[in-house]
Amino acid sequence: MTSEQVIRVRDETELATRAGHLFAGVGAEFMCAANHSDTWSRPNVRASIGGRMRGSLAEGVVVRKLYTPTALADEPGRRHLFEMAAMGAQVRVCDSPLPHETIIIDRRVMILADPATAPERGFTVTTAPALMDGVCALLDAVWESAETLDAYLRRDRPHVGAGQKAILRALAEGLTDETAARRLGVSLRTYRRRVAELLALLESDSRFQAGARAGKLGLTG
Questions:
Q1: What's the pLDDT at 103?
Q2: How far, CA to CA in Å, does 18 sit from each of 14, 104, 115, 141?
């Protein structure tokens, strides 16, 4: 690819075929800005790109991941972000919507994804400075104003009082409602009402889901 070249690819498979080597050739910095953590829809492409990125992290490349809160809307999305952070990637969350998913490699190659409005998205791959400089400046500004993943989760974390933590412990132990109510010194009706309130607070549809979310947010300690 020449320094001014711009190419269009029609889908993820063609991107992996024609530009996949770029992911393995990261020298210093890799940045991805996306609304969703599940960037790649095709499993084979996801596995290929993911493997190359793990290699880059192992070699000390700075990996920056910028997402909107949408990426944290479900458990798989949260898990992916936690895994990336555990591997050494810098993960931040911004409140501003991102019009296009963007990948920048060593500030010399940029990949822009078309809007995710069709089963297969096209991509623009470019090294043209006129295109690169403006996008890099914009993403740098958004990155600086974004929160780290830990800071965002602390702000997003609901307040759980001592009584609600006791309920969470009872749920984790698998106690029956009758046993838990006796332990907490409340009526069965009151205990069940408090469980329902806790599920609503944790935006969970089941007791199991509430326990899992509470553990992920560090609310059970």
A1: 92
A2: 6, 16, 20, 30
